Amino acid sequence: xxxxxxxxxxxxxxxxxxxxxxxxxxxxxxxxxxxxxxxxxxxxxxxxxxxxxxxxxxxxxxxxxxxxxxxxxxxxxxxxxxxxxxxxxxxxxxxxxxxxxxxxxxxxxxxxxxxxxxxxxxxxxxxxxxxxxxxxxxxxxxxxxxxxxxxxxxxxxxxxxxxxxxxxxxxxxxxxxxxxxxxxxxxxxxxxxxxxxxxxxxxxxxxxxxxxxxxxxxxxxxxxxxxxxxxxxxxxxxxxxxxxxxxxxxxxxxxxxxxxxxxxxxxxxxxxxxxxxxxxxxxxxxxxxxxxx
Amino acid sequence: xxxxxxxxxxxxxxxxxxxxxxxxxxxxxxxxxxxxxxxxxxxxxxxxxxxxxxxxxxxxxxxxxxxxxxxxxxxxxxxxxxxxxxxxxxxxxxxxxxxxxxxxxxxxxxxxxxxxxxxxxxxxxxxxxxxxxxxxxxxxxxxxxxxxxxxxxxxxxxxxxxxxxxxxxxxxxxxxxxxxxxxxxxxxxxxxxxxxxxxxxxxxxxxxxxxxxxxxxxxxxxxxxxxxxxxxxxxxxxxxxxxxxxxxxxxxxxxxxxxxxxxxxxxxxxxxxxxxxxxxxxxxxxxxxxxxxxxxx
Lengths: 293, 297
Known about the structure:
The complex is a heterodimer.
Chain A: H1 2-30, H2 36-53, H3 61-90, H4 95-116, E1 131-134, E2 137-140, H5 141-163, H6 165-175, H7 177-182, H8 187-213, H9 219-234, H10 239-260, H11 265-279
Antiparallel strand pairs in A: 1-2
Chain B: H1 3-29, H2 36-53, H3 58-80, H4 85-105, H5 107-110, H6 125-145, H7 147-157, H8 159-164, H9 169-195, H10 205-218, H11 223-239, E1 244-245, E2 248-249, H12 254-268, H13 281-296
Antiparallel strand pairs in B: 1-2
Helix pairs in contact in B: 1-6, 1-9, 1-10, 1-11, 2-3, 2-4, 2-9, 3-9, 6-7, 6-9, 10-11, 10-12
């Protein structure tokens, strides 16, 4: 039983990790919490759904994912234009970033709510049988697919950040945009890059979440809170920490739900987060994002 | 005025109280709280459930409800406010989510998502709400002008500079957050008194966000602007209930319109509609005098 729960927990953690990373990467560079990520996930889930529904014979899932990820990138850049650009230009205080991302999240959710709140939609089932079994273990095929995709994406992302020149530039801009500009890094290009990555991730996670939980306007919102909690536990702005915390959170949630039921799970996650801040405010990663003078 | 219009005015006044609570936290101290609806939940449920089960007078339980909110605010503030501001926004948001699930979890007492409706009737509810609104606005106004308020504004403008001038930033932040949460708690109780039913959905995350949006629309640094925005933005969509767009009542597009307004404000008028301006006799007199001077020429 415990093994089964662990496997389910890891699969859940993979979902959270995908969200937490999309959120953490924007934080690491721009130093604000991108609430818009939840709205983007919802929007992408709907885009993927309508893309798939527009064909007579549903295309393979990877086509949908790629298409939605591409849409997510465009969408993220568009949002950057209408909301964040003037904040950067005016050098407004950080609180305006909060406000702008919050506004975007709400506007997307409420537009979707006006038109689609009546009937929840669902992707057509991907597999004929939903589970396969190894010995006594029953593993959902859906979860396995999500786990594989998200592990591959996370690995690719970590490689990109840690091993390539672009990654080096991103890390430099994260430390100091002004200095890296002096060193010949095109900071605004890097910002566009960051938003594209976040958009890509939200596209992929939108489709995957839509497959797993069904498509409804508040989808992104509910899942985003988990992503936030994971990235707070992991240490804001640290990708590795966010991934580790997401898996931890997934496991913890699975076990808690098994023992105490699902109603009290949100309370548990919140209390865990608060305790974590008490004991280890720098998060799992230990890199404490301090505000500099 | 008929009952419907009175109800609209009461709703708008409650919204003003909520916005003033957010004003104190966000505009005076520069903290971005997304969980004010949670404090409304705590105080409202606490007040009405205690009033019903213990049979205490509502005035007493209201004080207890507000105290409970203040205690929760304190518990959250202690670990969070030591860290950078972003944590504060995330934690308050998580707190809001937790509160609504606690309400559903304690179904035995709160009646879950159906809503708690055993709320005693209080007689001149209209005048209570109007009076408390006036009181809250006066309170915030004098707070802003007091030594305490000036310390907060110093803290908001530059935390490090304020620290170097001997302001105890951490304790000041805790205090301001508790005060703001008490005012939000008051709004929650009045909401219950007016609507006679409280549901976890009514105090959702959207409500917290809505209050922030009103505040920023009116002007982050202007109490007058915030109060006017809180009143008008709540009132206008209700009066436009019958107007239709894409076959959907404008009322449903309310949030979308708020958001578009905010995007416009961010892009073109970053300080909100009123900016730093405050209403006072002196500014009115100043306006008048300037006009006269112009006419004199």
